[in-house]
């Protein structure tokens, strides 16, 4: 398993990259959810990516809710997945489910 710091970095990147794109959209169109939806589903290629992200988010949520007993972790990962996306939620979950004091071995 990768070191926790790698997952933390991926979670940060998974927040920064999508929100950068959202910031560009808002700077051009304003906070217009109708236009955002129109553009997200405006072509077959866009539909592919939008549905892939949605299904990935559902998969992360089902896995977290099924496999995690700690209510705090479930809440944090669910919030990250819903508010940011699976690009943040999945690596966050992988970081949080690793023991903090685990010795890292490189092979």
How do you describe this structure in short?
With 107 residues, this protein is mainly alpha-helical.
Task: Describe the 3D structure.
The protein has 107 residues and is mainly α. It has one domain. 78% of the residues lie in helices and 0% in strands. It is built from five helices and no strands. The protein has helices at 4-29, 33-40, 44-67, 71-83, 86-97. Helix 4 (71-83) runs antiparallel to helix 5. The longest helix has 26 residues, at 4-29. The protein is elongated, with a radius of gyration of 16 Å. The relative contact order is 0.17. Keywords: Membrane, Transmembrane, Transmembrane helix. This is DUF2834 domain-containing protein. It comes from Catenuloplanes niger. The chain crosses the membrane at residues 7-26, 46-65.
């Amino acid at each position: 398993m990768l070191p926790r710091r790698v997952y933390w970095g991926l979670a940060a990147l998974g927040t920064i990259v999508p929100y950068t794109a959202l910031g560009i959209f808002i700077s051009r169109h304003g906070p217009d959810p109708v236009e955002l939806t129109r553009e997200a589903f405006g072509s077959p290629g866009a539909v592919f990516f939008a549905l892939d992200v949605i299904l990935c988010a559902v998969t992360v949520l089902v896995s977290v809710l099924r496999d995690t007993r700690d209510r705090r972790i479930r809440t944090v990962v669910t919030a990250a997945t819903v508010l940011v996306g699976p690009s943040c939620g999945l690596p966050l979950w992988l970081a949080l489910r690793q023991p903090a004091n685990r010795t890292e071995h490189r092979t």
